[in-house]
Amino acid sequence: MIYIVQSVVEVPLEKVEEVIGLYRNRSRSVDKQPGFLSFQLLQNEPKPEELIVHMTWESKEHYVAWVTSEDFKRIHELEKKYPDQELASIKPVVRRYHVRAD
């Protein structure tokens, strides 16, 4: 069953383009994970400071394997050390969905 995970972050408006640049240049290690299907960074049209990381997985089990992997932990530790501590301190709201029809 397809599984979608969205991480919603509110970024200061003056830093939105910087964050978009970070995602455009992401490591792409998640792309190699078993069960990974796609990644998109979405920007809310009426509220441009809201960015959503949208990932699609073959199953919840594949997603859980990713978030418990050493690679995931390494990447997220690097994020905490980002020089801009205002950005590093932003906590996403994570939403998870099972696709029931398409």
Describe the model.
This protein is an alpha+beta fold and 102 residues long. It has one domain: Alpha-Beta Plaits. It has helices spanning 16-24, 60-67, 70-80, 85-88, and strands at 3-10, 36-43, 50-57, 93-98. The chain has a four-stranded antiparallel sheet with strand order 2-3-1-4. The chain is globular.
Q: Any idea of the CATH class?
A: Alpha Beta
SSE sequence, one letter per element: EHEEHHHE
Give the biggest sheet: 4 strands, antiparallel
At CATH level 3, the topology is: Alpha-Beta Plaits
Please report the total strand number as a whole number. Answer: 4
Average pLDDT, rounded to a whole number, is 92
Poorly predicted regions: none
Counted by DSSP, the helix tally is 4
Main structural class: alpha+beta
- Overall tally of structural domains: 1
Strand order of the largest sheet: 2-3-1-4
The best one-word shape is globular
In helices, the fraction of residues equals 25-40%
User: Could you tell me the strand content as a percent range?
Assistant: 25-35%
Pfam family, one: ABM
Protein name: ABM domain-containing protein
InterPro entries: ABM_dom (IPR007138), Dimeric_a/b-barrel (IPR011008), Heme-degrading_MO (IPR050404)
